[in-house]
Amino acid sequence: MTDRVRILVVDDNDMILESLVNILENEGYLTSIAKTGKEAIEITEKEFFNVILIDVNLPDMTGFDLISQLNETTPIIKKLIITGFPDTHIFKDDDYKKADAFLVKPFDPELLLDFIDQNIRQQEKELKYTKKKIIEHIKTRVRDLEAKNHIQGSFSC
Closest Cα partner for 95 from 105, 107, 83? Predict the structure, then answer.
C-alpha cells in the first residue's frame, strides 16, 4: 500500500496496549487504541483502519461481538483476535469464523507482524479485485446506456 497502514488495538490491559503499540509503531504502522468495544466502534466510525487487533475479553462485550458489529459497518477491515484462552468453550463455533486470524497470548512479536503483513496483502488483493469489478460494471453500464440511447435515437424523426 502506498499509505501507511493504520492499526487499531483494542484491549483493556494497559501493559498489553503499550507493548503492542510499541511493536507496531517501531515497524512504521500508525496506531490508535481503544479499551472497550464501544470505544472501538466510535473510533472506526470516524477513522479508517486496515487492521484491528482485538482482545477476546473486553469489559463491555466479547471481541466476537465487536467483530459482528464491525462487519456491518466496516467489512473491509482485517480483524485479528488476540486471546489468552484458545480452548475456551464459552464461545460458539460460529464466533471463530468471524475473525480473519487468531493469535494466542503470549506470542512472538514476529508472528504478530507476519499475521499483519499477510492480512494487509490479502486486503490489497481484495481491494484490487473490488476496483476491477466496479470498473467492469461501469463499462458494461455505459455500453448498455449507449445501446439504449442509440436504439431510441433511431426511432425519433
Answer: 83
